[in-house]
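Lab notebook, bench 4. The sequencing result for the construct came back, and we need a structural model before the next group meeting so we can plan mutations. Quick request posted to the team channel:

Model the 3D structure of this chain.
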Amino acid sequence: MTLSFTRIALSAAMIALLGSCGMAVRSAGPVGGGDLTPAPIPAASAQDEAGLQRWVQNFRPRALSRGITPATFDRSMAIARFNPDVVRLDRKQAEFSRPVWLYLDSAVSDVRIATGRQMLAQHGRTLAAIEARYGVPREIVLAVWGMESNFGANRGRTQIIPALATLAYDGRRAEMFENQLVAALRIIQAGDTDPAHLLGSWAGAMGHTQFMPTSFLEYAVDFTGDGRRDIWSDDPTDSLASTAAYLARNGWARGQAWGTEVDLPSGFSAVGKGTRRSSAQWAASGVTRKGGGALPSGTGSIIRPAGARGPAFLILDNFRSILRYNNSDNYALGVAYLGEAIAGRQGITGAWPRSDRPLSNAERMEIQRHLARRGFYADEIDGKMGSGTMEAIAAFQRSIGVAPDGYPTSILLGQLR
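Done. Here's the predicted structure in token form:
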């Protein structure tokens, strides 16, 4: 569905003037509903706490060697404590993954659509200026906001410094979390916020649109012009602008579509993000836009997130820009179609195979093991049905002469067994 936009609040000329002059437009009031009180850290064992404090002292010279000043380190790490909750959450493995249709039912719910439209009206002037500067449609920015924090209501109250210190000390993904901790210290050192107000989710994502510290350092912007990149306060302006800046710098093409729902010809097998063709080439091969009309222009791929019995989508480069924010087709579809709904455009019309039963994590891992034994899969056996696993499934399906939709089902598991 091509992204045509209804301009609100500012004329096109005024939007262009604000963007070209670099003027920030402050939102018309705070969002509200978000509790910014730091969540208490549960008590830890004496052994865990002592171990963390030893780790903090050993970490100090490494942090200082990476540009953190002694004053910043000592002030920030003074609040570091072992948080057993973040370790538990980091090790938790979901037993069942939600099918895409249930994920989208939640992502594009009536309540979320209504809230998105309310936020579009409330922050229209700011969103117009952001769109003018970065070229990312306001409804896409709003959709990311809705997906990430329910429009600011669920920004997270976990203290980031203790959480990241705990995860780096715990060691399962030590290097990654140590890098995030250094980035968090740089944020404090730059004066964007202080240790007590550096709040977010248990894994370190922060603010209205849940930036990890390293992403904040690379992409966050001070759109209000107050000297700080403030993604934590009730005012979402800097968060929304930072999200648009992130998408723009990761390939979002101004004025182009993210993609569209399509109908496929009988026997169609060119499914998967690894096959890229122009819209004209897809049209020549019999791919048509659902509901009629020309395919949106660009280069892209065909995906069928629920297999051959579910809807199909042509995804273009702007869809891949959303994937850079969160590398999940389900997430990117959620952003795309929440944006469509906020803008008042049509949603997905194809039927989902809602009678399919979800596979357990053990069953998903078994699929990966069977694929690995047969030479189709060489990545981690983790039960996550990402693009690598789906491409391996499609290759196996081709080898046995069935439609290569790459979709994991109980039928597929039986075929592998």
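The CA atoms of residues 52 and 215 lie 26 Å apart.
Will bring this to the meeting.
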